[in-house]
Amino acid sequence: MSSRAVASAVCAAALAVAAHFSVTWLAAVAVVIVILTALGWARLLDLPNKGGTTVVVAAAGIGAVFVAWQTAGAHIVRFLPVVVAMALVMSFVAEMMRQDGRSRLVESVSGTITGAVVAIAVAGWVATGRTVGGAAIVITAATAVAVAAAIGAIPMARGWVGAVLLLVLAGIAGAAAGHLIPHIDIVTGLVAGLAGGFGVAVIRVLVSRMPGIHKPMTALAAAAVPVSVGGILVFAVGTLLLS
Question: Could you give the 3-state DSSP secondary structure of residue 62?
């Protein structure tokens, strides 16, 4: 668990650093997080169609990041529903191409779609970075996520009690970052930190119960998932704050 916590912290810190330079670098880091999620998602959930699931999750996540990176103007995420719809179609196509008798079909489809949605969520970081003043929100929230994830390496931070502790610390880290980063105030930093920390706190508890969590690739996927989910939460809250 400590190794996964450190890996999550590294992913979040990379997002913060990339947002400081440009949206292109932010999108590149988001793609890396998508790839880490895709490579280990099927093994994390012990899904039967590992190859198909990996392709669908990777394609959905990379497509969502590309759309968020290229879309300009208001409503940056307006094309993401199209990516979600295509991911649904790809999930069923992947099952139709199976040659193993299609055992555990419902579990495979639902697990693949869930992985695709998780991968698509990382585009929220890029979409936030593309909005006016959004880079500061990304840096603030990603810093809070990195701090919360790093604290997760401490044994006392396990379970639901640890999740609450991570959420509180993420809020504090966000408020501190908001105080230091230009164009962001303490309240905005606090809310952004809580939004990012919520994904880390909750998903971390849920993912820790998955069957294949101790394998190398699944552990990397488990580390990337909380950061990925936090992206769409930060975008939702960041849009309200920036408006």
Answer: helix
Work out the average pLDDT over 189-194: 76
| H helix and E strand count, the chain | 10, 0
Structure tokens at 188: 């905005």
Nearest alpha carbon to residue 225 among 210, 241, 235: 210
Of the chain, the percentage scoring pLDDT greater than 70 comes to 86
CA–CA dist 40, 154 (Å, integer): 24
Mean pLDDT across 93-100: 85
First to last CA, the chain: 38
Strands, E, within the chain: which ranges?
Answer: none
How far is it, in rounded angstroms, from Cα 221 to Cα 42?
A: 10
State residue 155's pLDDT score: 61
Residue with tokens 């809020």: 171
Q: Is 133 left (phi over 0), alpha (psi -120 to 50) or beta?
A: left
101 DSSP assignment: -
**What are the respective helix, strand and coil percentages of the chain, to the nearest 5?**
80, 0, 20
Tokens of 106: 């419902």
Please report, for residues 6, 7, 16, 164, 221, the alpha-carbon distance to residue 11 in angstroms, rounded to integers and kept in the order given: 9, 6, 9, 21, 11
Is the Cα torsion angle 205, 65, 194, 3 positive or negative in sign?
A: positive
